[in-house]
Design goal:
It is a single chain. This protein is α/β, with parallel strands linked by helices. The strands form three sheets. A six-stranded mixed sheet has the order 8-7-4-2-3-10, sandwiched between helices. It contains five helices and ten strands. The chain has helices at 25-37, 48-57, 74-83, 98-107, 123-136, and strands spanning 3-6, 17-21, 41-45, 62-66, 68-69, 72-73, 90-94, 113-118, 144-147, 173-176.
């Protein structure tokens, strides 16, 4: 029998949680510091395949996504995220022309994109974008999934926060919930 499993959107949590996805580890470190300074918990991944795995395992408040993470681009990844019903408010980071990216986002109907930042990104630009994205969480529709593999009888409802991944995984991801670390004041580019 099929069960309906409700995955709570992280707007129900005390602190927002962001998934930061960039193939440049320096950028993920700098961006993580900026987000933690805004009281946002951060998980970082450097591999596009890990983005889907992390989104399936935890209901994030925000996705900060590098538009170019070979072997796929951010548009393809956002399409797959939407197809799986995992969309969250997203800030795109790109080395391309911002207006061209905004036009393509609009043309492809990627409604989860709340901001586009062009590299090099300053800490102030990222902070402003995150503030706007966190504000968008209040109006973002929570996601529901149907678990077709669950054979429990009578249908069940699971309101848990879902699983979480450990920090040392080999899938290109890491969890960083600490509030420590120093900010280096520069801009991130890559």
């Amino acid at each position: 029998m099929t069960s309906l499993r409700r995955r709570r959107h992280s707007s129900h949590l005390a602190r927002p949680r962001a998934l930061l996805a960039d193939d440049d580890q320096l950028i993920t470190r700098v961006f993580s510091r900026v987000l933690r300074a805004q009281q946002v918990m951060v998980d970082a991944v450097n591999d596009p395949a890990a983005v889907l795995e992390f989104l399936e395992g935890y209901p994030y408040s925000l996705l900060v996504l590098d538009l170019q993470m070979p072997p796929v681009d951010g548009y393809q990844l956002l399409g797959e995220i939407a197809k799986r019903g995992l969309s969250v408010p997203t800030v795109l980071v790109t080395g391309h022309d911002r207006l061209d990216v905004i036009a393509r986002v609009d043309r492809e109907g990627l409604h989860e994109v709340v901001d586009v930042l062009t590299k090099p990104v300053t800490q102030e630009q990222l902070s402003t974008a995150v503030t706007r994205a966190v504000a968008a969480i209040a109006t973002f529709v929570p996601r529901f999934t149907v678990d077709l593999d669950d054979s429990s009888s009578g249908g069940s409802r699971d309101d848990s926060d879902g699983g979480s991944s450990d920090g040392g995984s080999s899938d290109g991801g890491s969890r960083d919930d600490s509030d420590g670390g120093s900010s280096d004041g520069g801009s991130a580019q890559g």
